Amino acid sequence: MRKVARVRLTNQKEVNSYIPGEGHNLQEHSIVLVRGGRVKDLPGVRYHIVRGTLDTAGVAGRTQRRSKYGAKRPKPGQAAAPAKGKKK
Known about the structure:
- This protein has one helix at residues 66-69, and strands spanning 4-8, 14-18, 34-36, 45-49.
- By secondary structure, the chain is mainly β.
- The longest helix is centred in the C-terminal third of the chain and has 4 residues, at 66-69.
């Protein structure tokens, strides 16, 4: 199931926007920042929500491409969370 939110912009238009990353904390009246960029396999979705800004939390446990998902840099002493989807 694809994560999509219906967002009302400041000009009162309503658009569909994609929520990138694994999991999210958005609720009905959350304030979000939207950027352009369509999602190829979802018709009518032309915007992305920016993770890690306003009411949108970053993706937890993200170690690579962190800036795209609003994830903070892990502390050097902590053990890294196991990566999802990686097989050893």
